[in-house]
Amino acid sequence: MSTAADNGGWKGIFAIPVTPFRPDLEIDLDSLDRQVEFCLDGGSRGLVYPGVVSEFFSLSEDERRSAAERVIATVAGRVPVIVGVSATSAPVAAGLARHAAGAGADAVMATLPYVQHFFTPDLDYVNAYFRAVSDACGLPVVLQNARIGHAIGIDSVRRVIDANPAIRYLKEETSPSTHQLSAAVAAVGDRVDGIFAGLGGVHLMSELDRGAAGSMPAPSFVDVLSRVYDLYVDGDRAEARRRLMALGGLFTHELLYNVAVIKEILRRRGVIATTVCRTPVPSLDAVDLRELDEMLEVADLDGLAK
């Protein structure tokens, strides 16, 4: 069976750094630098910034530009950097894409405008939006088909990719993500260089079985997920499965509390200084923190990553 993973494009785990904030809500660039190095040391084969887990919608356009520049500079060409340019309109997304190209990005990634409107965008709107992004930067484009903003049906995804040859990758994470990924591989797997999964790597092995080129998760477990990916590619399914299943409780916590838990784990792993968020997130209470203590001890993330 021909799959997206056979096309010779980017593969593996492409982590999406969170945006670390100081207590005064300013971006903590030193923590951002440490996070980039943590991802690369953990085997991430590329970085995507900013994404949803980066709280990109809480950043000003100037902050998005400067933080993306910082990530690109810190990576210094060691792996591809995909800059997220999702925005409220085509002109804003195009401006961010133009800046990303000038800053040295390897590609850009965009959802449709993430502000909900009274009407669902039609195909002409979708095509015009992605054409504006691609025309502005001249880089490969990753179409992110996600729950945020307006999801695109798989048949429409195929038509958009056919009409916009700069779209070389798809990040498919609409629900149910596993079945939707299979449908995407069947519909456009021969039209793009790779189809990536999302949702934190929870279903990584199923997604790889269905033809995913890799996954774009938050960075909490990037080292473990990279090891799982390598084991899978090497044919050691049993060990890959064992290590992925060891993250089960932690995955549940991440899905439940999202960036609050992601930042707490990164803080505990010495990667970022605080768990401050700009977006409204649940505060982890004493029970949450005790459960997290127990799950981290049982999982032994450093051991799983070896």
TrEMBL record:
Binding positions (pyruvate): 216
Signal peptide location: none
GO molecular function terms noted in the UniProt entry: 4-hydroxy-tetrahydrodipicolinate synthase activity
Presence of keyword Lyase: yes
Listed Pfam families: DHDPS (PF00701)
UniProt feature coiled coil, ranges: none
Gene3D superfamilies: Aldolase class I
Keywords, alphabetical: Lyase
Keyword Cytoplasm among record annotations: no
Cellular component GO terms, alphabetical: cytosol
Family: Belongs to the DapA family.
Protein name, UniProt field: Dihydrodipicolinate synthase family protein
Organism classification: Bacteria, Bacillati, Actinomycetota, Actinomycetes, Jiangellales
